[in-house]
Inverse folding.
């Protein structure tokens, strides 16, 4: 007998059971953990709601939330009911257990084991499948909203003559319903089959009938539902051919029907649809016949037909009808693809003109004055001079400029507009004197002011000519609110407006402090809000810090692109938000796109790949949002602004004809303002967006042709050239500048690019789009197509000629000595009198100076090259004005020797360079450095003049 007095057995039993105190503690900890998880989830929800309410877009939050909740419960409940009903039905239809076979004896213990928990098990299974289905359906909120709010395109596809809205809005929803139906049928079939097996309706090893009549009927109906859905799938697949992507040998990526689709796949889908309907009826007929013989035969025929009719027959048609005469067979379908693609990407009205590529005027001196009328050549490259802005206008270490500055138009004192390079002096937390929580989030909260410079000029030291500078910023932009609380570099949260003062800016009199007066952000007066943000930001100090008090507000989601994407999650955001001073405030301007993947016959493109260039390769913040999105329809339908002080987000309807935007405006009413609300001051700073332009130029490498035979031959395929200013394989970025095309009467702010033939470096075409919305032809794309019978140098060839010219190479080598580094700016192309003028600024980052200064300008026209200190000097030399003799056309032979005068001048240049380096090391002594730089320029000019006088150029054609 066991020891009652505390033998080994008793104490072990008592020791193995937790005491009441331990159990209470465990329960308490469990409850606290559950409450903590619940509050964490609540904190995420609550802070999102507070943020949307603070930006006055709470309707976006509620519409999205209720749509997700509705889809979750409707489809989750449908899935749960379907699976649960079939489990219940299979259990109800179980046969009475008679003679127990070995199989049934094995299953009996499982039946007995789950018998007390049948109801709970049923609820658990249905709840699980319901949760999974509901979560999947909630992710389709965009598809639902587009279907329920879709508006017509008033354009029909050429094959089925359905409105494009059917493919863009309806078909995606029907496909989701079909996928949900398949999932429901399969899960119900599995659940019913398992239940029938568990309760004897299905037998695997037992002798006699393998299935009871009830199980046969039940499972046959479910199989009939599955096959019926397959019939619907075949029917929808017919329309899916119009938006199907495939690899077409002649053109690469292809969308829409080809010959084999229209003449083999489409008839096959029709036949398979009718076979599937008959097969489904055979399955339903088992309710009366109680045998699977005919349904199984029908299902086998359907599978065989799918292989033969849906697979083998189209392959035979492709092999023996299409391939022997591909161009003739495919031409009608390629023509449909050409038309649809050009319409879907807004390139259908592109104006393509022949351009000789050779100057029409023999006396080139007459062209000198035309240059200024044709283009405002920008020698300040916004992608190079940011370090110069940083060095000269940073003022304090806790300010910074973006890596790539922006180009805009601002009026001069005489009222004329000029291209301007500008950037905001934003907050740089890495430069504050001491990093701690108070400094990072309470004291250093914002940047200060705009810095702007003329795009077409530099001073005598190669520095930008600032039109807005210093701290606070002063200049041509007038008075405006200068604090920058929202910007591209502002990625952390700040808490403002409370007892803790902020550093506004510093000047010679010391630090100025301020307190945020805007209504942006979320109020932290409420303890619940503080607790929620403490959890959401994983920062407990928000809950108890004394720096937070009455009036404290938390600012976050502060980059312009993030704010626009958050309030309009149905838009795709352009990679380049840019600032402008509008009506006394700094406004970030953000271009946004509506896109679709369902435009019939239009070829697809991946946004991230199409918009990539040499700038996005080095600065990922310039990349388009949603880079992996595949689209075949795009419109710049919305212009958005974000106030740099208040963070206010405004969305303006830009493309009033876009049906995708109209659909989203129905789904989210009152979120997009009409175009008429755009003020004239704001309109003056809007422009054609870069990412849309890059998508269009990539498509135009193939779709500039309108003839199917030419398209199929591939004889006129172009490519976007690589950036000639570096050694990468990245595409050259497009450039903004004010210029006029040959058919225009005056300069227009434009976005430009070049094309080269596929696999070659000579020039194929030049492309420009009017980018000023005040111009009558805003958005009009013009392409100057060069003849294929002659070759015109492309950007890479021009850059190569620059680098190989002996006198230029010698000067570049001299400028690169020591620790100096030569940087090439944007190589701009300007059509002029039938020819093409190239201009490129050359910068030097010298010695201890860690920022680039403009030292030279390269210009070439009709084979004549100049490398001078200023743009005017280079243009004068190229066009042979002011007494200089114009060089002969052709290739100039290099000089065979260097004169003593040239050698002496180069020695003087080296001495001046060394003197400049010494001046930088001592102090630095800026006056001595400036004198040395002037001496260096004089020596180089003297060397070049002496070399030009000594050489007697001979052309290769002599």
């Amino acid at each position: 007998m066991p020891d009652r007095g505390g033998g080994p057995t008793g104490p072990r039993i008592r020791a193995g059971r937790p005491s009441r105190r331990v159990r209470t503690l465990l329960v308490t900890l469990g409850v606290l953990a559950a409450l903590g998880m619940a509050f964490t989830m609540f904190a995420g929800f609550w802070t999102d709601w507070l943020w949307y309410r603070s930006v006055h877009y709470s309707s976006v939050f509620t519409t999205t939330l209720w749509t997700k909740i509705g889809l979750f419960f409707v489809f989750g409940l449908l899935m749960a009911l379907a699976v649960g009903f079939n489990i219940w039905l299979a259990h109800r239809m179980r046969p009475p257990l008679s003679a127990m076979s070995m199989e049934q004896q094995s299953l009996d213990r499982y039946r007995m084991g789950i018998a007390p928990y049948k109801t709970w098990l049923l609820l658990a299974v249905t709840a699980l499948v319901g949760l999974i289905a509901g979560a999947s359906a909630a992710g389709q909120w965009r598809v639902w909203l587009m279907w329920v709010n879709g508006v017509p395109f008033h354009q029909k596809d050429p094959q089925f003559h359905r409105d494009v809205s059917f493919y863009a809005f309806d078909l995606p929803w029907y496909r989701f319903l079909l996928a949900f139906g398949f999932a429901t049928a399969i899960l119900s079939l599995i659940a019913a089959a398992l239940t029938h097996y568990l309760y004897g309706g299905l037998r695997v090893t037992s002798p006699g009938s393998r299935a009871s009549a009830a199980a046969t009927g039940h499972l046959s109906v479910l199989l009939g539902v599955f096959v019926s859905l397959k019939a619907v799938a075949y029917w929808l697949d017919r329309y899916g051919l119009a938006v199907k992507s495939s690899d077409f040998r002649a053109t690469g990526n292809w969308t829409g029907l080809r010959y084999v689709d229209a003449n083999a796949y489409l008839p096959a889908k029709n036949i398979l649809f009718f076979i599937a309907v008959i097969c489904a009826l055979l399955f339903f007929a088992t309710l009366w016949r109680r045998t699977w013989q005919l349904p199984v035969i029908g299902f086998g025929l359907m599978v065989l037909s799918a292989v033969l009719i849906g697979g083998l027959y189209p392959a035979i048609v492709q092999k023996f009808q299409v391939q022997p005469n591909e161009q003739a067979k495919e031409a009608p379908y390629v023509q449909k693809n050409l038309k649809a693609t050009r319409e879907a990407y807004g390139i259908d009205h592109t104006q393509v003109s022949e351009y000789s590529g050779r100057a029409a005027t023999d006396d080139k001196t007459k062209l000198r004055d035309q240059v200024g009328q044709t283009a405002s050549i920008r020698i300040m490259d916004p992608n190079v001079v940011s370090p110069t802005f940083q060095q000269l206008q940073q003022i304090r270490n806790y300010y910074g400029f973006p890596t790539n500055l922006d180009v805009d138009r601002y009026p001069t004192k005489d009222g004329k507009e000029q291209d301007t390079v500008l950037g905001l002096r934003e907050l740089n937390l890495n430069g504050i004197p001491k990093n701690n929580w108070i400094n990072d989030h309470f004291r250093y909260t914002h940047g200060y002011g705009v810095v702007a410079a003329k795009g077409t000029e530099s001073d005598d030291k190669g520095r930008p000519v600032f039109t807005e500078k210093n701290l606070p910023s002063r200049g041509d932009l007038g008075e405006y609110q200068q604090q920058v609380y929202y910007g591209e570099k502002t990625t952390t949260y700040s808490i403002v407006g409370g007892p803790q003062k902020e550093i506004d800016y510093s000047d010679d009199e010391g630090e100025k402090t301020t307190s945020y007066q805007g209504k942006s952000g979320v109020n932290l007066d409420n303890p619940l809000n503080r607790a929620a943000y403490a959890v959401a930001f994983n920062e407990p100090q928000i809950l108890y810090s004394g720096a937070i008090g009455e009036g404290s507000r938390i600012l976050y989601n502060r980059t312009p692109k993030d704010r626009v994407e958050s309030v309009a999650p149905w838009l795709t955001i352009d990679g380049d938000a840019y600032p402008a001073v509008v009506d006394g405030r700094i406004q970030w301007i953000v271009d946004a796109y509506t896109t679709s993947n369902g435009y019939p016959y239009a070829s697809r493109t991946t946004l991230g790949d199409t918009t990539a260039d040499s700038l996005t390769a080095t600065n990922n913040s310039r990349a388009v949002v949603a880079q992996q999105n595949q689209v075949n329809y795009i419109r710049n339908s919305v212009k958005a602004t974000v106030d740099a002080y208040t963070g206010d987000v405004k969305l303006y309807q830009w493309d009033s004809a876009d049906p995708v935007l109209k659909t989203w405006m129905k789904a989210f009413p009152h979120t997009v303002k009409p175009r008429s609300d755009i003020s004239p001051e704001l309109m003056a700073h809007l422009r054609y967006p870069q990412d849309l332009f890059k998508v269009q130029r990539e498509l135009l490498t193939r779709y500039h042709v309108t003839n199917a035979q030419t398209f199929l031959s591939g004889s006129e395929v172009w490519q976007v050239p690589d950036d000639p200013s570096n050694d990468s394989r990245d595409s050259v970025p497009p450039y903004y500048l004010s210029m006029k095309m040959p058919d225009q009467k005056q300069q227009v702010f434009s976005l430009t690019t070049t094309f080269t033939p596929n696999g070659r470096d000579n020039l194929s075409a030049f492309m420009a789009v009017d980018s000023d919305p005040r111009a009558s032809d805003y958005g009009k794309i013009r392409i100057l197509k060069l003849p294929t019978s002659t070759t015109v140098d492309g950007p890479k060839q021009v850059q190569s000629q620059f680098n190989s010219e002996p006198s230029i190479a010698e000067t570049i080598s001299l400028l690169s000595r020591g620790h100096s580094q030569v940087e090439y700016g944007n190589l701009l192309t300007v059509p002029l009198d039938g020819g093409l003028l190239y201009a490129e600024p050359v910068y030097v980052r010298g010695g201890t100076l860690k920022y680039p200064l403009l030292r030279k300008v390269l210009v070439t026209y009709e084979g004549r090259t100049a490398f001078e200190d200023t743009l005017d000097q280079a243009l004068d030399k190229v066009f042979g004005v002011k007494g200089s003799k114009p060089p002969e056309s052709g290739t100039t032979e290099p000089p065979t020797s260097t004169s003593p005068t040239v050698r002496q001048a180069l020695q003087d240049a080296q001495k001046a360079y060394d003197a400049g380096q010494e001046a930088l090391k001592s102090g630095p002594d800026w006056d001595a450095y400036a004198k040395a730089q002037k001496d260096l320029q004089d020596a180089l000019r003297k060397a070049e003049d002496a070399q030009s006088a000594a050489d007697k150029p001979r052309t290769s054609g002599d």
